[in-house]
């Protein structure tokens, strides 16, 4: 655990939180000096990766953007953190009902022998060390932060593709993409029926989890919000997918330079014996089945989607 003071004053104090014992459980206190409401208080969460375990953390492109405190507690805390908490046993943090709680009362809150249940945690994460840093803002000024660093190792196996046509027309298609062979390679063709520029086209990614491996998928609270296509290509594709691609060898999809590529040219793009390099992939994910679904929109109308289902297991 790491604690950071505020820029001008510290209204949230986490310097007594520690990781202890063989089980690496979380113990200590978290102090809020003010009632935290939506009017004055916000928070964000940034994720950092250190795949080589050498102290050189790199900011990842996903996390939780700055948002009002009570809204964030209702949206993220309830699903990601609260399942690990038992009031009166391992914490005195108040239970937050489905309708939310506002303000979060000022108090000194304890955590005792807490191990986080990651079954509902979202997103792909890299191997090595992952740091999740939460910063609290009062009137948009940093008033304190804390970070949890943990080691994470897992294996990802491609399972299958799913194809979804557009509502009125299909411009983007993964219908010919398949997962084949003992190595579970990705093979097939991605079809883009028009040049895709940001003035008309957007995409979003939804993440679903089936921790029991039974296809009972539940939508996770994080993914990639609907984003202009070229901006998303420059920000996410270049970091998450492009490291796995070798133009002319396992794909003919165009290389995206640092300044971006716009529009994305229409065409048929092959994938041949592709296995993803997950060393730059962000965020906590549950074990079991994970479905990543990409949807393409033209003028805000769905024009095709595809999903890759992967199995995530602890490394031996």
Automatic annotation (TrEMBL):
Pfam families: DUF1091 (PF06477)
InterPro entries: DUF1091 (IPR010512)
Name this protein carries in UniProt: (Mediterranean fruit fly) hypothetical protein
Gene source species: Ceratitis capitata (Mediterranean fruit fly)
């Amino acid at each position: 655990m790491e604690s950071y003071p505020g820029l001008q004053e510290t209204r949230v104090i986490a310097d007594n939180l520690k990781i202890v014992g063989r089980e690496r459980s979380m113990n200590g206190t978290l102090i809020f000096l003010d009632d935290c409401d939506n009017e004055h208080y916000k928070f964000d969460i940034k994720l950092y990766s250190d795949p080589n375990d050498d102290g050189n953390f790199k900011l990842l492109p996903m996390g939780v953007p700055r948002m009002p405190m009570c809204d964030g507690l209702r949206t993220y805390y309830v699903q990601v953190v609260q399942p690990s908490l038992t009031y009166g046993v391992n914490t005195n943090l108040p239970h937050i009902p489905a309708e939310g709680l506002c303000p979060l009362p000022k108090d000194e809150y304890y955590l005792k022998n807490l191990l986080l249940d990651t079954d509902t945690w979202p997103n792909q994460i890299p191997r090595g060390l992952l740091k999740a840093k939460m910063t609290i803002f009062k009137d948009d000024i940093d008033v304190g932060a804390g970070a949890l660093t943990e080691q994470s190792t897992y294996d990802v196996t491609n399972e299958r593709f799913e194809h979804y046509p557009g509502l009125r027309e299909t411009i983007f298609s993964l219908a010919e993409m398949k997962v084949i062979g003992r190595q579970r390679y990705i093979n097939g063709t991605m079809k883009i029926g028009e040049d895709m520029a940001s003035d008309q086209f957007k995409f979003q990614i939804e993440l679903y989890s089936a921790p029991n491996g039974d296809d009972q998928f539940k939508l996770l609270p994080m993914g990639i919000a609907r984003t202009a296509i070229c901006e998303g290509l420059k920000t996410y594709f270049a970091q998450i997918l492009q490291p796995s691609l070798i133009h002319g060898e396992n794909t003919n999809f165009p290389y995206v330079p640092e300044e971006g590529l716009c529009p994305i040219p229409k065409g048929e793009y092959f994938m041949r014996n592709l296995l993803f390099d997950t060393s730059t992939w962000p965020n906590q994910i549950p074990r079991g089945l994970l479905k990543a679904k990409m949807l393409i929109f033209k003028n805000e109308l769905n024009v095709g989607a595809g999903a890759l289902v992967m199995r995530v297991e602890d490394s031996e």
